[in-house]
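TASK: fixed-backbone design
INPUT:
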């Protein structure tokens, strides 16, 4: 049997637009055989995704994408194969969601000062009662005609240096590795090619991550070029880290990225799933 892995996706439990059930269904249709649901700072979609996955005959890896403050930067760490009943992990995620609420209120205040009324309430309405991300602000701003698409709205209002930007204060890299390990999961640096880092800065991140016991980096991500994949493959091999692959799918509206559609993992990289077997997957259910 040929396996197709997509180990980074989002649902309405964070800033995706599809319910966990619809996401699993779409992944199945796309030929994905092993899917990780990795919502931002929340595992609330996992239970529903598990049920859909069992019904459709696809392996579901319980995952999460955690927000990390690393020096002056924000980076993301994916946890895969986590026990969502782990208290330490859930306490950590819950504190991050409180931070998100604080940040969203502050973003609302700042946007208000720059003449955009009702952004907090608008973003909240787009979040369906789940956590609020910048994506929800962006959807509100596009809906209100402040810019024509998501990319433009981010650039104009909610990235560093723009009126609605609030960096937020997230977990440390060390804390996040501890939480994921406590939950029996594997730690993955999400989309490393996307950070605005020099090569030296990126390598210092990998070095620190290895020292803390990190497992893998996303060698393949939904919006990577072939060149990005090859560069990240080289870094993974240099640091003895495994490689993960994930689309970072957020929904069909974000048309450039589709679930299960990514470049292949380059030769020479040890896939993060190299010592997984179906029994392990069943245990993680
Ligand atoms: P947050 O974690 O609330 O700061 O929101 C970050 C999320 O915003 C990411 O996970 C992406 O889904 C989304 N995002 C960030 N930059 C962009 C962009 N330029 N265009 C569209 N979505 C973006
Ligand atoms: Mn997102
Ligand atoms: Mn991310
Ligand atoms: Mn993501």
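OUTPUT:
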């Amino acid at each position: 049997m040929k396996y197709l892995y997509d180990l980074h996706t989002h649902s309405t439990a964070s800033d995706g637009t599809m319910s966990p059930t619809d996401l699993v269904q779409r992944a199945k249709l796309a030929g994905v055989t092993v899917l990780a649901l990795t919502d931002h700072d929340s595992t609330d979609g996992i239970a529903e995704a598990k049920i859909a996955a069992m019904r459709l005959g696809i392996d579901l890896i319980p995952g999460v994408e955690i927000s990390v403050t690393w020096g002056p930067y924000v980076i993301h760490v994916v946890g895969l194969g986590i026990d969502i009943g782990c208290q330490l992990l859930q306490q950590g995620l819950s504190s991050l969601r409180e931070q998100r609420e604080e940040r969203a209120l502050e973003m609302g205040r700042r946007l208000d000062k720059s003449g955009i009324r009702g952004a907090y309430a608008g973003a909240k309405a787009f979040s369906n009662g789940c956590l609020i991300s910048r994506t929800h602000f962006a959807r509100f701003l596009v809906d209100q005609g402040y810019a024509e698409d998501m990319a433009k709205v981010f650039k104009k209002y909610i990235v560093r240096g723009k009126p609605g930007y609030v960096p937020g204060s997230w977990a440390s890299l060390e804390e996040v590795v501890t939480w994921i390990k406590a939950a029996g999961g594997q730690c993955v640096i999400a989309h490393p090619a996307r950070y605005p880092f020099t090569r030296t800065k990126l390598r210092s991140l990998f070095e620190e991550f290895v020292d803390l016991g990190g497992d893998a980096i996303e060698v393949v991500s939904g919006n990577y070029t072939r060149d990005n994949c090859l560069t990240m493959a080289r870094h993974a091999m240099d640091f003895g880290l495994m490689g993960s692959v994930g689309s970072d799918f957020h929904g069909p509206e974000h048309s450039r990225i589709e679930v299960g559609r990514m470049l292949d993992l380059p030769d020479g990289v040890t896939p993060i799933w190299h010592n997984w077997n179906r029994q392990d997957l069943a245990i993680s259910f």
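COMMENT: The pocket of manganese (II) ion (ligand 3) is lined by residues 65, 76, 190-191 (CB under 6 Å).
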